[in-house]
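Need residues for this backbone.
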């Protein structure tokens, strides 16, 4: 192929080219100069942040003919050979496809042989968390005490899946997400050297859409260059990334604040007509208000902004919209985003959310005004009664105190009602292996919750148990209604629980809670619906034991229990 993608052409060849990871590159450069290179390294961090590139640069630097040197010269035979992949002493292994014990044993057998072309034999194991438990065990001893001419560099995006016995044998470097400003600087350098015309604002849009990954940013830039005609414009960048123009976001924010339902719905209609994804749109709106809140708190936090470029409209909206209103908008959008995951009609939820936001403040103002007026009336009535007492010649202190009013009983909190539609959807996709996987890790989940400073909330799950699970969600039955309500109304708790389930089971599962008495009704209703569907379609396969029992005693005497 004559053409190569930008991220391949501009792959870093020196430590100075690894953008945004100065805490890693400076440490490695000092170790190279002082000849204190370790026998094993672990590079962890998000995708596209320079882990594999940093490993290859380190392999070139230790084998450079001019060593000790803090940067590979990229001119000697060793550097050129490692860059081209022609030197067999630098071995790159993809652990995703070579994750068995046999592959690691092969490495263990060959590691004792001296390198043939360079000073050090370097093994770069990418996505090392994909190795099996047996493969990790086979690697342990070799990783701890390899021959003097061998260096291991392990790279992973999920370090929590690596055994601690492996991590303790390595020097660990955590690569962080690259700041948008650093990504823009690198793209500007590439554009300047390639002669491509591009708007600066388009680069900012691409950098923020890349979410901290340089490879993702260069891939999006590559797409935008192919999509554009002569120059990469802001509209080209918005189209390629699927983002919403900030002008639309500002118009919609003003319409929500001014309670202009018509304009808000018109803006939504225009965006959907342009083919924007509703989920991406509500995410952009949430980050827009989040960035506005940060800007109100401290304008110097501009580097932390996710979606917003500071312009006149944004500054004006930041001045007039109060922070309390922003909290309410973010909360409503977050709830709407959760509800959109379980529907085939996300547009309806978006429209309802916008209308609700445009009316909820008016309702609150009306309630507040009514309360103030009621208080004013009571004060006027008390002043009138006090004036009458004075006119009759009584001292205020002589007036008999009214009898103590009995304390009003606290209104009982409305019982929690489980989302039956969501639970039925989980039950339709539920499988026994999924439930078994959740139950097998349940004790570990409770222990990790206690370690997350959530002991009080973790206690809510002590008398709860998983009763159904699918590939992306699971149902937990609570013994007490109040425990279920406290757990399901705590968004932070649900987020932490989902993260822990991802760590333990490898899947980001969402929890749906249901009290015990409601579970019986929902389950029976679901089973009856399934039996009705089975009778109508006639496609279900009956258990052979049940079929034989039905032949022997008939339907009248047959009772089936789980």
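Answer:
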């Amino acid at each position: 192929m004559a053409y190569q993608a930008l991220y391949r052409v501009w792959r870093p060849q020196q430590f100075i080219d690894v953008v945004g990871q100065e805490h890693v590159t400076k440490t490695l450069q000092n170790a190279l100069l002082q000849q204190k290179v370790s026998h094993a390294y672990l590079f962890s961090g998000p995708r596209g942040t320079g882990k594999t590139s940093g490993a290859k640069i380190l392999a070139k630097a230790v084998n450079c003919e001019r060593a000790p040197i803090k940067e590979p010269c990229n001119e000697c035979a060793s550097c050129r050979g490692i860059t081209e992949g022609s030197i067999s002493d630098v071995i790159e292994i993809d652990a995703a496809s070579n994750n068995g014990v046999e592959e690691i044993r092969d490495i263990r057998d060959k590691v004792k042989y001296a390198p043939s072309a360079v000073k050090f034999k370097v093994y770069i194991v990418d996505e090392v968390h994909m190795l099996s438990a047996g493969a990790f065990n086979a690697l342990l001893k070799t990783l701890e005490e390899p021959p003097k001419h061998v260096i291991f560099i392990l790279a992973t995006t999920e370090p929590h899946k690596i055994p601690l016995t492996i991590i303790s044998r390595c020097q660990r470097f955590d690569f962080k997400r690259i700041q948008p400003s650093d990504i823009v600087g690198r793209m500007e350098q590439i554009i300047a050297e390639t002669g491509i015309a591009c708007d600066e604002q388009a680069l900012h849009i691409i950098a923020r859409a890349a979410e901290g990954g340089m490879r993702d940013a260069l891939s999006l830039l590559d797409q935008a260059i192919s999509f554009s005609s002569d120059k990469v414009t802001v509209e080209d960048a918005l189209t390629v990334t699927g983002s919403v123009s900030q002008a639309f976001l500002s118009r919609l924010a003003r319409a929500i604040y001014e309670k202009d339902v018509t304009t808000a719905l018109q803006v939504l209609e225009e965006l959907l007509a342009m083919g924007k994804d509703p989920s991406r749109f509500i995410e952009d709106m949430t980050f827009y208000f989040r960035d506005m809140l940060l800007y109100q708190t401290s304008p110097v936090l501009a580097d932390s902004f996710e979606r917003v470029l500071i312009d006149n409209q944004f500054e004006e909206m930041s001045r007039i919209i109060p922070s309390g209103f922003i909290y309410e908008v973010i909360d409503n959008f977050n709830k709407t985003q959760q509800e959109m995951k379980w529907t085939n009609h996300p547009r309806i939820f978006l429209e309802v959310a916008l209308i609700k936001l445009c009316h909820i403040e008016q309702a609150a103002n009306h309630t507040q005004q009514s309360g103030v007026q009621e208080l004013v009336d009571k004060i006027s009535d008390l002043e009138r009664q006090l004036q009458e007492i004075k006119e009759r010649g009584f001292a205020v202190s002589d007036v008999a105190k009214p009898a103590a009013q009995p304390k009003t009983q606290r209104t009982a909190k409305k019982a929690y009602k489980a989302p039956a539609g969501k639970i039925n959807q989980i039950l339709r996709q539920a499988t026994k292996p999924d439930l078994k996987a959740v139950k097998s890790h349940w004790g570990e989940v409770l222990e990790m919750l206690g370690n997350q400073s959530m002991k009080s909330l973790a206690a809510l799950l002590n008398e709860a148990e998983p009763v159904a699970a699918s590939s992306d969600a699971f149902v937990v039955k609570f013994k007490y209604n109040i425990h279920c309500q406290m757990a399901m109304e705590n968004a932070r708790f649900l987020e932490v629980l989902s993260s822990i389930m991802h760590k333990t089971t490898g899947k980001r599962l969402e929890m749906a809670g249901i009290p015990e008495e409601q579970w019986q009704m929902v389950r029976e209703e679901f089973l009856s619906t399934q039996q009705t569907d089975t009778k109508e379609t006639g496609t279900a396969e009956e258990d052979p034991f049940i079929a034989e029992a039905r032949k022997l005693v008939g339907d009248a005497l047959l009772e089936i229990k789980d």
